[in-house]
Design brief:
With 352 residues, the protein is mostly loops. 3% of the residues lie in helices and 0% in strands.
């Protein structure tokens, strides 16, 4: 192992055609702005290195230690960072288009405004990461861990005295078409994030902030959205069959045409929600607040609406066949053209 290489040594060796720096101890080295494309850095120690605007396109950084490195504006297009440690690294404005970060540790990393289009982030540890404004269009994040973190740091924390945010920040991030199947985003901040067409099947978003997020045509089958905030979010055309939305906030959200077959939606707050033509067959909506909601033409066959609050709700032309409305509040609700065959009404009587 080269234990005392300087930045001049690296640049000289690169100029001479050397591309392999694997195993080197380069902690704290200053290589900002250098062109080191197509190099090998397997198991290298680049902790706290200065790599701002450094070009590392198609570099191999497998298992590299980059904890606490400064890599603002770095170019890592097509780079291999699998199983690397990037805790607390600053990669804001960096370009990681097509990079592979499978199994990589990104705990507390700053990737705000970074380009991660088509990046591989399968099983990456992304707790407390900052991805505000980042472009993750088409990225694969299956099994990634972005859950809310109570601890101030992990055992590899670089600066334990620095107070870190406890949630992953994806405010305004572009995740359109991203593969997030099985990802853990509990407590994450996805305010105004673009998740159109994203695949979030079986993902966990409990307690996440998705207010004003775009989830049009997203795949959300079996997703966990318990206590999530979806106020003013757009989900038109999304599929949420068998989703768990207990105590979620859906106020002013757009759920027009959404598939919610078998969804669990007990105790939701959904006043003024738009659900025209939505499929709520077998949905569990006990104690749901759907006051002033627009459910015109919705399919609510066998829906459980026990003790639901439906004051001034538009239920015109809604199919409520065999629905259960025991003790539901329907004052001033619009039921013109609604189908109530076999429905159990608020007073316990079955409509014939």
């Amino acid at each position: 192992m080269d234990a005392a290489l300087t930045s001049q040594d690296i640049l000289r060796r690169y100029a001479q055609g050397d591309r392999d720096f694997s195993g080197c101890n380069l902690s704290g080295i200053k290589l900002s702005g250098a062109n080191l494309s197509r190099t090998d850095w397997l198991d290298v120690n680049l902790s706290k290195a200065y790599l701002n605007s450094t070009v590392l396109t198609f570099a191999c950084l497998t298992r590299a230690n980059l904890r606490g490195a400064l890599m603002v504006g770095a170019n890592l297009c097509g780079a291999n960072l699998n199983q690397a440690s990037l805790s607390n690294v600053n990669l804001s404005n960096a370009d990681l288009h097509g990079a592979s970060l499978q199994g990589t540790t990104l705990f507390g990393a700053n990737l705000s405004l970074a380009n991660l289009m088509d990046a591989n982030l399968i099983d990456a540890d992304m707790r407390t990461i900052n991805l505000s404004g980042a472009n993750l269009g088409g990225a694969c994040m299956r099994g990634a861990n972005l859950r809310q973190e109570r601890a101030v740091g992990d055992r590899d924390e670089i600066d334990v005295s620095r107070k870190k945010r406890s949630i992953a920040s994806l405010i305004g991030a572009n995740l359109s078409g991203a593969d997030l199947r099985g990802a853990n985003l509990s407590g994450a901040d996805l305010y105004k994030a673009d998740l159109r067409g994203a695949n979030l099947q079986e993902a966990t978003l409990s307690g996440a902030n998705l207010s004003e997020a775009k989830l049009n045509n997203a795949h959300l089958q079996g997703v966990f959205l318990t206590e999530a905030n979806l106020s003013s979010a757009s989900l038109a055309g999304a599929v949420l069959n068998n989703a768990k939305l207990e105590r979620a906030i859906l106020i002013d959200a757009d759920f027009n045409g959404v598939a919610l077959n078998g969804a669990i939606m007990a105790d939701i707050k959904a006043s003024r929600v738009q659900m025209q033509g939505a499929d709520l067959t077998d949905a569990k909506l006990s104690r749901a607040d759907l006051s002033r909601a627009n459910l015109r033409g919705a399919i609510m066959i066998r829906a459980n609406l026990i003790e639901a609050y439906l004051a001034r709700t538009n239920l015109a032309e809604t199919d409520l066949t065999d629905a259960i409305l025991n003790r539901a509040e329907l004052s001033s609700a619009n039921l013109v053209g609604a189908i109530l065959k076999g429905a159990t009404l608020p007073d316990g009587k079955v409509h014939r």
